[in-house]
Hints:
By secondary structure, the chain is mainly alpha-helical. The longest helix has 55 residues, at 26-80. It has helices at 26-80, 86-98; strands spanning 5-7, 10-12. It has a two-stranded antiparallel sheet.
Amino acid sequence: MDDNKMVAGKVKKPGKRGRKPAKIDLKAKLERSRQSARECRARKKLRYQYLEELVSSKERAICALREELEMYKQWCSAMDQGKIPSEIKALLTGDEQKNPQGGSRTKPSRGSKNHNTTTTTTTTNNSSS
C-alpha cells in the first residue's frame, strides 16, 4: 500500500507536523551557546559575590551582638555583686539630666526597636484677630 494520503487533491507524505527547521549555521549556533554560557557564568559570579558580601555583613553583626551580650553579662554579674558599673551610672545620670522632672518620659511602643525614644507632639495656633 501507498503511505501517501490524498487531501484536497494534494498528496501529503507522512512525517512530523509543523514547519521544518531552518538550516541553521552550526558555527553561529555554537557561538550563541558559548555567549549564553559566558553570560550565565557572569551572572553566577555576581550572585556569589552578593551572597558573600551578605554573609560577611551578617557575621560582623553577629560579632557586634556577641560583644554587646558579653558586656551586658559583665554588667549583670557586677550588679549581682552589689557594684554598679560606671557605664550604667553614666546612662542613669545622663537620663536624669535630660529629664529633670522625673517621670515625664513617655513609654515607647511595643514594636519599636529603639526603646530610648520619646514621642512629643506640638500644636500651633494661628488665629487672626
